[in-house]
Amino acid sequence: MTRNRTLSALLGIAVALLAGVVSPVAAQQGPLRITITDGVIEPLPFAVPGFVPENGAAGEYAANITRVVAADLAGTGLFREIPREAHISTVSNFDAPVAFADWQAINAQALIVGAVGVSGDQIVVKFRLFDVFSGQQMGEGLQFAGTPGTWRRMAHKVADAVYSRITGEGPYFDSRVVYVAESGPKNQRVKRLAVMDYDGANVSYLTDGASIVLAPRFSPTGNQILFTGYESGFPRIYLMDLNSMGVQALAQTEGNMTFSPRFAPDGRTVVFSLERGGNTDIYALDIGSGSVRQLTNSPSIETAPSFSPDGSQIVFESDRSGTQQIYVMPASGGEGQRISNGPGRYGTPVWSPQGDYIAFTKQNAGRFHIGVMRTDGSEERLLTASFLDEGPTWAPNGRVIMFTRESAGAGGQAALFSVDISGRNLRQIPTDGPASDPAWSPLLP
């Protein structure tokens, strides 16, 4: 690559490598978009000199925010940070002119310049993004303000803005994940609901482990969580309010198991599975009125429902054909149409927030996979393979999937992993101990 190529031109090449085919004219004339599908790209080199502390109280915050921004971007696999020791220039004044030649000399193609100030109980973070080879600023500078305790969120917001400007994709760093934190021996696990930042930081526990909890799910606004609990000794679905921390049982039906709940996009309806007389079907509950209606009626197991983003359809798993397969039906209910057609068993389908893909768990030939397919079942692509991978959940931008991976053997443990929808950049999410059943929140307000 010659040095006079602009960042947009370089990313146009990345688009071609990533998507497989791209029109050079379209890449030059239209807005930049990186489509994460197939292929491997050379990560784009970026530099993020230490954010400038604008007063004495800001020094530690500035250093920490710089590291989180860099880690967010590098963690996508689309970007590569140029190490600090390779920098020729330093940035000591946020408003000083950029010495582009010094950054060009080390092949930095994007430059992030930031500053942090602290005044009383407020911290202010500001940044600018530059295309090094064109010598131009990309978009307007932005500023975020909050309490010192929210510094990580402000770092994620900076990284989100950079990521979106360069890739054209929606942001996802400023989000949270609810999951089941596990402890104790494998045959007697204590399971607690926990919530953390998308990267494993800022963990807090929502339940005390006195009873088993499974399959938590965020509401569309992120302020409520559905889950399956065994507090009564029987699986039932519960709703937790994250503001009050109050918990209520939903769809209480004496002697019948309820499980696998998930919100509708409007946040007012919950779909779930109910077992009655040895048969399991999918039902919908109106949270406000408490009214319940049956959506499927088949002498088989129907479970794991998930709404399309527009609320018009539901994808679910059923063994009506003799093996676990994936079906799509109208949100009002009905027979449904099978969309999975490959060998093996399919389960835990989840509709992408973008509406373009359905993620799923697949079991075939003794291996488990996380995969994606188009909403009509076409273009099936397996992203992972292991002893046990299951339970995918989508990032808010619909381009990264988190899931549970359990290792083999008597000492095997569950852990959280993420992968992008091309199958690239498989990464383990750090947690304090074994973890399972992740569910991604929407982007935080």
Automatic annotation (TrEMBL):
Coiled coil: none annotated. Residues 1-27 form the signal peptide. The keyword Cell cycle applies. Gene3D superfamilies: TolB, C-terminal domain, TolB, N-terminal domain. It is found in: Periplasm. It comes from the Bacteria. Residues 32-138 form the TolB N-terminal domain. Keywords: Cell cycle, Cell division, Periplasm, Signal. Belongs to the TolB family. HAMAP family: TolB. The Tol-Pal system is composed of five core proteins: the inner membrane proteins TolA, TolQ and TolR, the periplasmic protein TolB and the outer membrane protein Pal. They form a network linking the inner and outer membranes and the peptidoglycan layer. Part of the Tol-Pal system, which plays a role in outer membrane invagination during cell division and is important for maintaining outer membrane integrity. This is Tol-Pal system protein TolB. It comes from Paragemmobacter amnigenus. The gene is tolB.
